[in-house]
Fold these 2 entries.
Entry 1:
Amino acid sequence: MTDFLQRHIGEHIDLNDEEFHTVSKFFNSVKIRKRQFLIQENQSVDTMYLVKTGLLKSSLIDEIGKEHILQFANENWWISDFASFFKGEKSTVAVEVIEDAELFSITINDLEQLCKVMPKMEHFFRVKSNFGYVALQKRILSLMSHTAKERYDEFCLMYPNIFSRVPKRLIANYLGVTRETLSRLQM
Amino acid sequence: MTDFLQRHIGEHIDLNDEEFHTVSKFFNSVKIRKRQFLIQENQSVDTMYLVKTGLLKSSLIDEIGKEHILQFANENWWISDFASFFKGEKSTVAVEVIEDAELFSITINDLEQLCKVMPKMEHFFRVKSNFGYVALQKRILSLMSHTAKERYDEFCLMYPNIFSRVPKRLIANYLGVTRETLSRLQM
């Protein structure tokens, strides 16, 4: 099980077995079933999660009951309410399990402690955050400047693995289009 | 001039004068006039900028010539094409000066070197990246779930200082509405 974590971290930094042993003690394993909520709205969230297997989504329900999906997370993705996790705010998104999942979790206190005792891990998390930032900028530019059809094609191209596993209504809620529009785009 | 940089970094980490002296050698000062471009599209961008004074924007021009503004940056904001800076891709946004600006610049190589020689700075940049990530997630949720009127009100509330300094057509290009819609929202 820890093989996965070592490989995931090893994509950006080199850790020998002794260092990894230290790192692994900061993480816990979590198993969670389909349709369970990992995070609900209006909570204080002190944990973020790395997906080993399974699929989750974070989303916001607006005042008229419409769901807006901020993120899907499958293998090797991190998920949480990051505004709550990093800034201590109340959560605004809910995180729900779409496929039974095995996760690694780390609390904000353990994250900060880990970065202190092992500067390499601070580097790892900085790189992950930078790459996440870049991905979100692209999503914003896409939301602003691309048509629904272009966003649909991008999604299929970038996330074929998620596309094939997720109900179409959820893809519509991610792209910000109605289910009917999505059907039209698929033709 | 370095007082500003020391204060900016001091918001997240403690640096003594000797440490700050080391840090400051990794930065350069840049002055640039209104209407100049700091970054153009389709370049390799190896520098990011911290705004000491002035105001800039990063934006994308789509195929029909419409501008979409990704970011405004005034005092204490960082700006670049971050996909190019962090991931070595070709730039997709242009960065233009709206008000004469004084900036601090750092190259990607110097950033990585600085983080190596001073782990505290790796912490500083991780925190900045995390906070930036959270801000972008909020912008995505806002683009997806809020009306133009709500986005306009949020912008006035969150960035009163930018609102008062920027031509209204640029605010429309940031909010993703037409100039006519913006006029209606202001009534």
Note: The two ends of chain B are 42 Å apart (CA to CA).
Entry 2:
Amino acid sequence: MSSNSDIDNLIDLMAKLPGLGPRSARRAVLHLIRKRARLLTPLSDVMQQVAATARECLNCGNVGTTDICDICDSEVRATGELCVVEDVADLWAMERAAVFKGRYHVLGGTLSALDGVGPDELRIPRLKDRVTAEGISEVILALNATVDGQTTAHYIADQLEGQVRLTSLAQGVPIGGELDYLDDGTITAALRARKEL
Amino acid sequence: MSSNSDIDNLIDLMAKLPGLGPRSARRAVLHLIRKRARLLTPLSDVMQQVAATARECLNCGNVGTTDICDICDSEVRATGELCVVEDVADLWAMERAAVFKGRYHVLGGTLSALDGVGPDELRIPRLKDRVTAEGISEVILALNATVDGQTTAHYIADQLEGQVRLTSLAQGVPIGGELDYLDDGTITAALRARKEL
């Protein structure tokens, strides 16, 4: 190890990022030191900016620099459709696909008895308020196809039943997917939901 | 994507780190924003520190905060043994093993005709100077067991022949290694260098 405590500190902090372990953190730090002007200084500056300005949208939970995010603030996106996602990363994934024109609601996780996450730890009460307040006609449950995701989807569906149209993302063969590599559950879902050509 | 250009900037810069792609950079940035006080702010601060103070040792090429690194500066480590490594990461790996008591010389890469890296692009002239100036009795070539690493080792051995004792790291079965998973070259090297029990 280097005797320099700043460099060691930097390695320790980098190793706390998801996807980086101690070894890749050391590699990343050496890379940063080599590209000081082009990478290390700009990265430090922009981190300071983000630390000062980043906040969660009070309405939907998206991450941005304003109390109300651009999507919630945009009149164009008041289509009456509300897409419920687990996490900001899922919202960004939907936005990259650029096909959904409505607004989002970020739960901030899934219900989990094991981890002690109940409806009040997520943004579920706020979701119910929004359905009324924003005149939502359809809630699209875009939760992950995991056990926890689907449990959460069922819970929300129970809570909103009768008030609004409830839909979920289709399940089936992903684009470019090969049958031989798919699990049985996906093939079963795709067969059950088969379409007329 | 978030509409916030600072957050987008941060994602773009993080994606330039080795081991992180666009997807893991997004995950890391969301993690940083969630752990603002405990991770994002300290990371930004320590990056600024490192950007201001980190430098290469003028003698051996190690990374530290002084013109001459602690190892080169320490009289205890003037054992007459000089360990030649490709990269600072290799020096750190040797130091973690805590078995070598001499000094290091970081080449900063390997000779590579394809990439146009000749002896003058590396710290090879400086190595020859140090062998004389520091009264080195043994040069240990701890270069990677790759084609480029071994080519570089041979070149350095040629340059220093007759002036100093030249050794290289032993090749063989790694500790905890299983024969069935080793390549033929390693097994051949281990058999040739077999030892009396």
Note: The first strand of chain A starts at residue 55 and ends at 56.
